[in-house]
Structures are given as structure tokens and as C-alpha cells.
Specification:
Elements (H helix, E strand, L loop, with lengths): L2 H24 L4 H11 L7 E12 L4 E8 L2 E5 L5 E14 L7 E5 L3 E7 L6 E10 L12 E12 L4 E15 L7 E12 L4 E5 L2 E5 L8 E11 L1 E3 L2 E14 L7 E11 L2
Antiparallel strand pairs: 1-2, 1-16, 2-4, 3-4, 4-5, 4-6, 6-7, 7-8, 8-9, 9-10, 10-11, 10-12, 11-13, 12-13, 13-15, 14-15, 15-16
Length: about 270
């Protein structure tokens, strides 16, 4: 573990512990805040929602370069017959990919857009689920920010909401089937699990890392596993529910050319009911 990653993990752990104690001391009755946060944290909630996530990944390559990844993730529900619906979740990335072989330089552009369609039945109060296809489209504007491949695979989402907790996971595996023949094939597993605890005064504690496995990589470079978390708070402004969070993750398992740690700022916007 690099010194910067160890420092980030220690700082995050201390922040979580001190924030938990402070929030418990300051909490006051307010079930609406718990409900507001829970709906923002559920990735397949049947509500129009726009999460915006800024990631900085540190310690790339021999020169400890920094990658910037900005993701727009609109969630759009489409009602079907009866209680069924399709919940679309599309990830639109804009990124700066540094040249890790040099102390400066890199590429900025749109990355590969990834739409997922979850077919979901009527939800109970505490349990939501959905399954469907996950796509990756070769929309990148530079070769450094995309795969150059058309890819598709299955995806599933499960969410448990025993208030004040929101627990769940989204898992998918995609394979390339067309695209630039000179680019490497895609065979990638992605598992995003999340644990949120929502306090009645609007503060939240969260961990939501995304583990990935590149099945085409050499044996030591297959897995990327981040560990960490952070804090946030949900509030309303003119009928709009806004939920910002700040999180940090240390990569306890990573490819030889992978980042050492990550800082993430996310803000979710949706209309308050």
C-alpha cells in the first residue's frame, strides 16, 4: 500500500468514526430526512433522478499521476403494464486520462456510455430488485478514454431498505461482440455494493465501492478492490431533494498500473415528493 493510500484510508476511518459520534449526538426526530436519503440512495427507485459523481484517482504509474472521471448517471423509470416498470440507469463519463509513462500530458474526452435497463416488478416497502441488459457503447472521443468496442451482458440489482439502512448491490458482466478489431476484447465483471445509514437529521454514512475484474488481464492484474466510505447530508431546496456525499477509497487490490486511492464527490438531485 502506498503512503498516500494508507493516509487516505486512515483519514477516512477517523472521519467516519468522529462523524458517527457527532451525528448521533446532534440527531433529532425527522423521519422525512431518512425517507429522502433512502430514495436518493436506491439506484432502481422509480423516480427521475440525476446523480453526478466526480472521481479523482491518485497514484497512477511511476509518476503518481491523477485521473479525473466525471460521471452523469440519470435514472429514468418507464412504466409497463400492471406493476412492472423498466428503470434505465445510464452512465455518461467525461474523463481526463493521464499519460502514466510521463510526468505530464494526457487525453480528455467523453468515455464509453453505459446504459442499463432494469426490468423491475412492483416493490415492497423494504425490498426492490431488477434484472436486465447492461450495454457499453464505443462513444469515446479519444482512444485513451474508451475501449473501442460494443459490449453487452446481464445485470442485476437488489436493494434492502430496513430503515434507517439502505443495503444492496448491482452486478454485471459484459463481453465485447463488435468494434475496432485492433483493440483488446472486453470481458469485465463489475460489482457495486452499498451500505448507507441515514440519521434523522439528514446526515448519512455511506460506503459504495465498485469492485471490478478484468478477466482478460494477467493473473496478478485481474481484480480492483476499493475499501473506504464517507459522509453526506440530504436536504431540500425549493422542492428539490439534494444529497451530496464525500467519500475516499483505498485500493487494497489493484492492477500493477492501477490507482492507489480515490477521492469521490457525488451529488444526487431529484424532485422531493
Amino acid at each position: 500500500m502506498r503512503r498516500s493510500g494508507a493516509f487516505a484510508w486512515a483519514a477516512t476511518t477517523s472521519l467516519l468514526a468522529s462523524s458517527a459520534a457527532w451525528v448521533r449526538a446532534e440527531a433529532a426526530p425527522g423521519p422525512d430526512a431518512v425517507e429522502l436519503a433512502g430514495k436518493s440512495e436506491n439506484p432502481i427507485e422509480r423516480l427521475l433522478k440525476l446523480p453526478v459523481q466526480q472521481n479523482f484517482q491518485f497514484g497512477l504509474g511511476a509518476y503518481d499521476r491523477v485521473e479525473s472521471l466525471l460521471k452523469f448517471e440519470p435514472v429514468i423509470p418507464i412504466p409497463l403494464s400492471g406493476s412492472w416498470a423498466i428503470v434505465t440507469r445510464t452512465i455518461i463519463p467525461v474523463q481526463y486520462e493521464p499519460d502514466t509513462s510521463a510526468p505530464s500530458g494526457g487525453s480528455t474526452g467523453l468515455g464509453d456510455v453505459s446504459p442499463t435497463l432494469f426490468v423491475s416488478p412492483g416493490h415492497s416497502e423494504r425490498f426492490h430488485w431488477g434484472v436486465g441488459p447492461d450495454f457499453q457503447l464505443p462513444t469515446a472521443t479519444t482512444s485513451a478514454t474508451g475501449s473501442g468496442k460494443w459490449s453487452v451482458g446481464p445485470s442485476a440489482a437488489f436493494v434492502f431498505k430496513p430503515k434507517p439502512w439502505v443495503l444492496g448491490a448491482i452486478a454485471s458482466n459484459i463481453w465485447s461482440f463488435a468494434g475496432d478489431s485492433s483493440r483488446p476484447a472486453v470481458n469485465t465483471l463489475s460489482v457495486e455494493y452499498f451500505v448507507h445509514y441515514n440519521f434523522s437529521n439528514g446526515w448519512t454514512l455511506s460506503t459504495a465501492p465498485t469492485m471490478t475484474a478484468n478477466w482478460n488481464a494477467s493473473s496478478g492484474d485481474v481484480w480492483t478492490i476499493p475499501v473506504g466510505g464517507g459522509v453526506g447530508r440530504v436536504f431540500e431546496v425549493s422542492g428539490l431533494a439534494i444529497h451530496p456525499t464525500l467519500q475516499a477509497y483505498d485500493y487494497v487490490k489493484r492492477p500493477s498500473d492501477g490507482a492507489a486511492w480515490e477521492l469521490r464527490l457525488e451529488v444526487s438531485f431529484r424532485r422531493a415528493e
